[in-house]
Amino acid sequence: MPQGPRAPKSAADRRRRRRRIAALIVAGLGLKLAATECAFRARDEGAFPHVNFYVEDPQLGVRLQPGASMRFKLGRNPRTTIHVNASGYRGADWPEPPQSREIVVVGDSQVFGLGVEDEETLADRLAERTGRPVIGAGVPTYGPREYLEVARELLVRRRPETVVVVLDFVDDPFELGRPNSERHAVWDGWAVRRETAPTEVTQFPGRGWLMSRSHAVYALRRWLHVRSSVGAVHSEEAGERLLDPGTPSEGGWEDLVHASLRTQAQQAGAAAHEEQGGPLKAQQEGQGERAEVLRSGESEQFWRDEAGRPGDIVDSRMAVSGRSIALTAELIRDAVGLRENFKKQQRKLARAQAARLRELQAAAATLTESREAVMAELARSAPRQRPESVFAAYLAEFQALCASHGAELVVVLLPLDVQVDGGEWAKYGVTQGPDMRPSQILLTDLVADAEALRIRSVDATAALRAAQPGAFLDGDSHLTARGHAAVAEALAERLARPLPPRAPESGLPQGTGHAPTQRAWEAVEAVPFSGWATGTAQHLGGWLKLRLSAADDVEPVREIEVVEGGSPAAMRMTTATGMTLVTPLASGSPLRAQLYRLDGGGELQIRWQGERLQVEVTARPEAPERTLTFTRPPDALCRCDVCDEMWGDPALFPACEAAYSRAGEEACEALLGCVRHDPLFAPGCPEGQVHAFASNACFMSCDEDNPCAQGRCTPWHGAAVCVSGG
């Protein structure tokens, strides 16, 4: 039966039909977009090569969003998972209340642990090795100023016993004077350099997720960035920039050296430095146009043009945005070259001072006061043995902050991977990288400054070198789990060892002086004495001089042991026919000493009658037998025609002979002065030993944590030294 004509559709039907079609289209697009997102997510293993959950902070530049998490993967390195705790730092939530003996570790992305799992970071490994609770408070992009502020917060909140600051030489020397708020901004959850941040952002619903979490959008932004990059060099495989000449906010070689060296460089002429290759010298083929732009004076316009470019987000070459390792290494080598120039100037000053010393020695007057003036002048004009690290003032500030909260500061120094192992250059596509071993001196300078401030420090270079291969990520300078474990082991070992004892201050305490010179003694009346031993006594300027000489057919005194009224500054000098003792002794103070000869012992006592010395020497029949040694003078002294005169202190013979054994009359004067405790000719001391008590002798430093192997720990001039005998 034929059907009749259809009734015309109503407007409502037509609207419903259009809505169904639109829904199908949207659903189809949604499915395609979801499939696209899933495809890119699968390709990326659900991971990004940069942290994507930063939030703005007016003081620190950025913070991490509490409770955030992500998967992280850089190049061919393994994928890892990052969790942020409720405090805004990596790892599990911190225990409350704070635990006893807690350690807080502050730093940048190395402490944060980019490229390793939560439980593989330095903080977790250190907790395993020390058995102490450890708080990891590292945040990518942070620099030295931020470490200080984070420590300030946590010292109040956690009251830790120890604060460990990890200084990363990849960027920390350059960021010391540049707060993070001037270096980084937050763009859709990513941290980008200020120069590349957009001036404004168009907001719309879902932007946060799309721009920070969508792998498809990330791939699109990366593709667009590569297509629009002008003058950049790209790799054949991934279209990534090979070399970044750095941004102005990242600093230059000047940040690596102390202000005194920068002034010296300016005085020497910056032109000469540029001729040898300035810090922006293009070492790698292809840097070309970008480096030329920076050198041509057009950098300001260049970086204005870079604003809004997402290179710091989509460039997966390195885990943290910044200059290339090749350029950083070049800047470090420039700084080391400047330091070498400093050393040359110091050597010139040392030669000039040596000539001045000879003039002063020749002109020195007979009185002790004149000798003291000479010593003071030499101390003022002494050249510096090494330049001061750029971190010296920073360490002092950090130490004072920790001390004000009852905590100890410990410093860990992380070198560049190419400083540890030249083989690491290959992963950056550099076939023949420069030798970075000489640049290790910058870390050595920093360790020396830390030790001078009584700060325990760890240069991690040796530990990381021993952990090679495999201490660093592939294609990046961050530590692997193996690298974190190696640094934690070195740090735990350093925490188990006390600081070396503090060295006494140089010179003598106010109100004390060196012993009078030989010429000064010759002008003072000598009080003779006799008995079991014969000799003379003199007193001048708070110093006593006893000269014991053998009578006919009588054995000479071979040893003097002061048992009452003595001083660690007592100096004993020997001759073929007796001994001389020079020791501080206030007028009116008694002194008692035991004397030893091959045929027995005696006792010497000093008493006073008004201002006049009274000396009595008696035999000691009950004196215990004592093994006496008789040290012949070295050949160098005999060449000075003094083998039958007063030689000096036998204990000083080896050191003085090593210091002044050159031929000539000048050498005799220096050698004799050295063995006779003349401070103008003091020899150097072995490591760990220092001069003290106005003597040329060397003493071991000591303190409560570093007791004396022999003798007793005796306070001296702001510290203490080991003193044997009476």
Summarize the structure.
With 726 residues, the protein is of the alpha+beta class.
Describe the structure.
The chain has 726 residues and is of the alpha+beta class. The chain has a domain at 45-258 and 287-323 and 389-497: Rossmann fold (3-Layer(aba) Sandwich). 36% of the residues lie in helices and 18% in strands. The chain is built from 24 helices and 25 strands. Strands 12-13-14-17-16-21 form a six-stranded antiparallel sheet. Strand 19 (600-609) and strand 20 (612-620) form a beta hairpin. Helix 1 (11-43) crosses helix 8 and helix 19 crosses helix 20. 39% of the residues are buried.
What's the total number of strands?
A: 25
Strand order of the largest sheet: 12-13-14-17-16-21
CATH superfamily of the domain at 45-258 and 287-323 and 389-497: SGNH hydrolase
**In this structure, how is the largest beta sheet organized?**
6 strands, antiparallel
Helix fraction, binned, reads 25-40%
The global form is elongated
CATH topology heading of the domain at 45-258 and 287-323 and 389-497: Rossmann fold
